[in-house]
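Work package 3, deliverable 3.1, input record:
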Amino acid sequence: MSDKRKREISDEILISVRGLKKSFDGNEVLKGIDLDIRKGEVISIIGPSGCGKSTFIRSLNLLETPDSGSIIFEGEELTGKKTAEQNRIRERIGMVFQQFNLFKNMTVLENIMLAPLKLGLMDRETAAKEAARLLDRVGLADKADNYPAQLSGGQQQRVAIARSLAMKPDVMLFDEPTSALDPEMVGEVLKIMQDLAAAGMTMVIVTHEMGFAMGVSSRVLFIDGGQIQEDAPPDVLFSNPKNQRLKEFLGKILR
Amino acid sequence: MKNLYKRLLVLALLVLGMLTLVSCGSDVPPNRVFSVDDLEGKTIGVQLGTTGDIYAADYEGDDAGTIVERYTKGADAVSSLKQGKIDCVIIDEQPAKAFINQNSELKILDEEFTLEDYAAVIAKENLDLLSKVNDVIRELQTDGTLKKIIDNYIPDEETGETVPFTYEQKVTDGDKLVMATNAQFPPYEFYQDGKIVGIDVEIAKAIADKLGKVLVIEDIEFDAIISAVSSGKADIGLAGFTVTDERKKQINFSETYAISKQVIIVRDDEAIKEANSLGGKLYNNFIKEGRWKYLAQGLLNTIIITVVAILIGVILGFLLALVRVAHDKNGNFKILNFFAKLYVTIIRGTPIMIQLLIIYFVIFESVNISKLLVAIVAFGLNSAAYLCEVIRSGIMSIDEGQFEAGKSLGLSYSIMMKNIILPQALKNVLPAIGNEFISLLKETSIAGYIGLQDLTRGGDIIRSITYEPFLPLITVAIVYLILVVLLSALVSWLERRLKKNER
């Protein structure tokens, strides 16, 4: 669990967020978020439910459209782009969902191949080969021809990760990837994420797994009330929390 | 499959058996009408829109509680009389004679009402045709052809014999003269050996000939003939039309070509009831003169209308659903969506029969268009509205997560719809789509309203010849049942095939 010490974190800023605001029906969920994400960083976002952390991570690939503020990804401003341009940028931002969201009408292999194939990034043969390689990487080579409904939650989430990786993204967003899983399956998914982090993938993770946040992250953000309350390396944030609300939050979780 | 056939057979036999029991158990009450004075307080059957109807309406709502039952076909009124559902039928003399020739247990009361004149109907604005038709009728009267035509169908009062005569058509090619009629009115117009024949038909042949045109006969409902002629769907209407002031407001009448009177048909209690065996009935209804062909032709038309209408419905309904969903999900196509919604509201908010009539008589008013095509268009458009909502609900029921996963991979809306959403949505709504197909198949039974000979009308024609409602109706019902069972089997086969994907 000490990979993070050795990680290469460059100075190159991959995503730069400034003044991000978002309301739902007059209820302000994000009240102005500023954040720089460097290449190679693994950032865990923690916070009480309803604090806006999910909305924040979903804003990073424009699944939620911000009301104001800017998101600059690899030098390109995302907000206000046309749908076609948004799609082109989303190809480089992988996302893993709480509910896996595998395409139910396709086999595991087809799920992974679909996007590279339909977006013309690979021919069928290459896509199939790449999908098989990724499946092997997440330990599900034997499930290639199964349908999602035939897999366990943990297996589905591993396929979902492989599906995102097939697009060779520059950053991976994880929105509570283990929250919908039975406890015995959490480990297998975290293991894959840990391997990814070790391989140098830039990752943003909304999570309730404090152990994982502490062991794998290079930085932990505490969001509450629609704002980043604390932003520090995990050892600092967990051992010496300054923010009063963070103290209460950790007090409730780490009993 | 074995199981399916068994189920089908059992169902069909059950229905047949039940109805046979019902029909055997009925007792026909004795006749209660012996003269015009007895009409008060009785149930009188008439054909809708005929002078018999107008006459009977005078009694309707009187203190004695007279009831007038209006049938679209004279033959149906006669069938009801035979079964004791009504007390008498008021109808034109010649059809009445034809009816009692076929039905020994009925008789005509020896009383006459006012004499009436039969004339052809022609659209108000078509004065040119009117004067030409009048010339021809006068000519036929002068040279004795008219008498020959009538003598062929109506026996001489003294000798009781007819004199065979057929008008020979000389013109076989060229412009068409379209005649609208209702071929359930012997001896003026009726089916014989699969063709429409009768006095009116012979006269129309002569008129067409003298005008140098080829005669085309359209068999439609009696109460639709005047609108068919005035809208230009037909050039001339010949269907034993009595000249009345009411009708003169809508249409022009030609010179009269025949004289008729209204008579009362009642049950003849003295007559010996025919005890017809089932075999004899089967022969009479289906084998004799190749009458099964009315059903076969009707079945073919029903299948053609249903299949093509389903195709139109699926394609158009699909496009409409895509517009509606794109609007609801992304806010696109505001104007198109408005029209799609309007379309669905109008189609679902009005009866299909009215839509069919509007498309035939109003939208294609003066276009000479195949009725089969009109029916296909009407049922296709109707089905599209229902399928639009079915498919839309299927798409909207797909979990938002499927869309989000697609978006997060950078897939465009169209790639997502085609590869992810629609395959799932269609599988989910397949049972509902199958249901719509079944409704559509059965709804086509109203195609007879624009004179299209579908399965239902095929049975109606047989009924109008044999006056036996039982076998033609049951047979038609069983054929529909078989079609529906086959259609549902097809849908569940599709369902099973798609189910393989998941469990």
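The interface with chain A takes residues 399, 401-402, 404-413, 415, 419-420, 423-424, 427, 501-503 of chain B (CB under 8 Å).
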